[in-house]
Amino acid sequence: MNIGIYRSQDSKIIYNSIFSESLFKSFKHNNNVELIMDDNIEICLSKIQQSDLIIFFSHGFHQGIFHRFLDREGEELYKKEWLIGTNKNFEFLKNKKVVAFSCMTALRDVDGLGELAVLNQGCKVYFGFENSINRDLPEEYLSALPKNTDAKNLISSVYSIVFFEVLNKAIEKNLSFKAFAQLTKLLLKKRIIKKLLEEYGEHVKLDMHIEAALPVMETANSIFVHGNDKIKFCS
Question: Are 5 and 52 within 8 A, CB to CB?
C-alpha cells in the first residue's frame, strides 16, 4: 500500500506534527511511504496522487486544506494558498482513503470538503473533524496554576501522543475507519484528563480539570467519518 503523509510548512503545523517523521519511520517497514512536505504545491499533489492512503497535517477550513496559511512570522496570510479544496485540485481525492488532522474539513451539511469528496469525487472514505482542533486551555485554569508555569503546549502534546498511537495501531491492526474514529475519540478523552491530573493535580481543584479538558473533549466529539466507515486502512 502507498501511504502519503502530507505536512504543510507553516511553522505551527511543523511544531505540532513533528511526530509525523516518526510515523514515517514506523510505517516504512511494511509499506511504501512518502513524507510530503515540499514548498512546491505541484510536487505535493503529484505525490498525493500516487498514494492510496493520505494523511494530512495542515490548517483547514470546511472548504479545504491549506498549503500555506501563515506568513514567515506566524501571522495569518491575507491571501492563503489552498492545497486541496472544493474549488481547487479536488480531483486528487478520487479513490483515496483520507485522514485529515485539519480543522473543520469534515463539517456536515455545508458542502464541506470531506462530505463532497465522498459524494462527488469518488473519495472512498474521509476521516476528519467538524470543529476546530482546539489547543487552548481556559484562562481561568491557567491563572490557577503556579506562577511561571508553561502549560501552553500541554494540549498539543496530548494530540501528538494520541495521533501517533492511533495511526500506528490503525496500520498495525488494519483497523476500519469506524474503529479508528472510536479509538481516537476514546483516547483523546482519557489522555487529556490523565495529563492534567499528572501535571497539575495538586494545584487545581478537580472540577477545574474537567473544565480544562473540554477543548479536547469537544474536538474529540467533532470527529466524523464520511463514506464507508467499514473500509479498513490497509485493505
Answer: no
